[in-house]
Amino acid sequence: MGKKSNFFKILKSRIDGLRIELKILAIITFTSILLYEFWLNKIPAANSFFYDFGIVCLKLSYSYISAFIFYFLVVYAPKERKKVRALRFLNNKIHVMKNLTALMIQRICDESGNPINNPDNLSLEEIKRYCESISINHPIRNIRTGEIVHPNMYEYIQEKSQKIKTSLDQLISLHELLDDELFHRFSNMSDIIARELTFEIYGMNIPNLKFLGEGLYNLNCEKKKMYTYFNSKYYPRYYFQYLLKN
């Protein structure tokens, strides 16, 4: 009974992960086949046009159902199994990016004299103000246990943002194992780092870190959206299957 229960749970999970338009078309075509085979074929056609039209619709319905079953078993199901195997790697990378983003913002707040517990509560104006109060060569104080020692804030932000970018590049390269929403969030985060957290765009003659404020805020917002989606939608869908495989 347990194996049957697990089978149906996995089947439901995989059907839930299908694109909505594929499921709608499958329901419509399957219903059309049932209607024709059990009811409509017993009703005489008004003329040859309606008869031929019905036959064409029936053939199209059978063709779609056949293609749907082939796609589900040969293309979609193996890809879903790969997603299950990659879940632990994906989960670890996401937590690394979450922590690195929080560390950058917490460091900005600490060095500006405004320590915080939760960086997610900061507004855009607060982050900009804290960044403006820190010079680009501001020395790092109060190094946390296990942290790499950086000579200044420039080196610190560069190192943390590049670590996030490296993780994003690794995840984006596995695009076949991501759903559309996660791929979209990862791409947005990568774009923010490339456009808004890169010192080369502004040069080294800037007086403070104000130019990083909007980028840090946007990165944190995208991180929250990505992390919320991963924990509420993606992770629960595959975690049960992951436990069965391990």
Structural description of this entry:
- This protein folds into 2 domains: 2-85; 87-245, no CATH class.
- Helix content is 72%, strand content 0%.
- The protein has helices at 2-16, 20-38, 48-85, 87-111, 124-132, 153-172, 180-196, 213-245.
- It is mainly α and 246 residues long.
- The relative contact order is 0.11.
Summarize the structure.
With 246 residues, the chain is mainly α.
**Low-confidence blocks of residues:** none
How many domains make up the coordinates? 2
Biggest β-sheet description: none
Helix-strand category:
mainly alpha
Keywords: Membrane, Transmembrane, Transmembrane helix
Transmembrane segments: 20-40, 60-78
Structural descriptors:
8 helices; 72% helix; mainly alpha
Sequence-ordered SSE layout with sheet pairings:
Layout: H1 2-16, H2 20-38, H3 48-85, H4 87-111, H5 124-132, H6 153-172, H7 180-196, H8 213-245
